[in-house]
From TrEMBL:
Region described as Disordered: 205-229
BP terms from Gene Ontology: cell adhesion
Organism for this UniProt entry: Penaeus vannamei (Whiteleg shrimp)
Taxonomy, superkingdom: Eukaryota
Name of the molecule in the record: Thrombospondin protein
SUPFAM superfamilies: Concanavalin A-like lectins/glucanases (SSF49899)
Domain (TSP C-terminal): residue spans on this chain: 1-163
GO cellular component, one term: extracellular region
InterPro entries: ConA-like_dom_sf, Thrombospondin_C
Pfam families: TSP_C (PF05735)
GO molecular function, one term: calcium ion binding
Lineage, broadest ranks: Eukaryota, Metazoa, Ecdysozoa, Arthropoda, Crustacea
Length: 229
């Protein structure tokens, strides 16, 4: 399965708009993917978009067009377009601030977890989100009606293991599945081309404008490794 950890930094220079910045993963086509999107403020347009971060499963019967556009805007589920898997409306993004995101996707146990950091502070933790619809796919960046976004230090790792915090929150049957799955534990690190020099260090942060310098919280480097044969 395509276990993946995906991380990067959002930095929005625009001070006037309040729309979406995000990324996609498990991307299989322009009609089938997961999308994480963060809206600065609530807004009624085609329908209501709330402030905060959403994770949606897009499985669109129509593909790109007005119906999918409306479904991506709505903070909710739209039949035959998109399913809302998680929403945290606690914060919107602020301009000229570097935010670090970290996503874990473990398709074999259908578990997803998202973290957001501002500087050294963890400002959001999705908790475990369970969906096994998409078993992997491409990664990418996402915006909707929002300009002047800088994504930086974007990278992914393919990690054959489950982060401790995710593991601890799994129901027993999934814990058993993790522990009973035989496989070879491997660590491989890839970087995706982005802006500026990418560092292989997992938690090296870019320097933002106005002297903002984001740095991640404590690296989550404790893993529950599957037993090796
Ligand atoms: Ca806009």
């Amino acid at each position: 399965m395509n276990d993946v950890d995906f991380e990067g930094t959002f930095f929005i220079e625009d001070t006037s708009d309040d729309d979406f910045v995000g990324f996609v993963f498990g991307y299989q086509s322009n009609a089938k993917f997961y999308v994480v999107a963060w809206k600065k403020g609530p807004q009624d347009w085609f329908n209501k978009a709330e402030r905060g971060i959403t994770l949606k499963l897009v499985d669109s019967a129509t593909g790109p067009g007005p119906a999918l556009r409306d479904a991506l805007w709505l903070t909710g589920t739209t039949p035959n377009q998109a399913t809302l898997l998680w929403h945290d409306g606690s914060i919107g993004w602020s301009p000229n601030v570097a935010y670090r995101w970290q996503l874990h996707h473990r398709p074999d146990i259908g578990t997803i977890r998202f973290y957001l950091y501002r500087g050294n502070n963890e400002v959001m933790d999705s908790g475990n989100i369970y969906d096994d619809s998409l078993k992997g796919g491409r990664l990418g960046l996402y915006c909707f009606s929002q300009e002047e976004i800088i994504w930086s230090n974007v990278k992914y790792t393919c990690e054959d293991g489950v982060p401790q915090e995710m593991f601890d929150d799994l129901p027993q049957n999934l814990k058993d599945q993790v522990l009973n799955t035989t496989g070879i534990s491997t660590r491989s690190l890839f970087t995706i081309g982005g802006m500026g020099a990418l560092d292989r260090s997992l938690f090296q942060e870019p320097e933002g404008e106005n002297g903002n310098r984001a740095s991640n919280g404590k690296p989550r480097m404790n893993w529950v490794q599957k037993p090796c044969n």
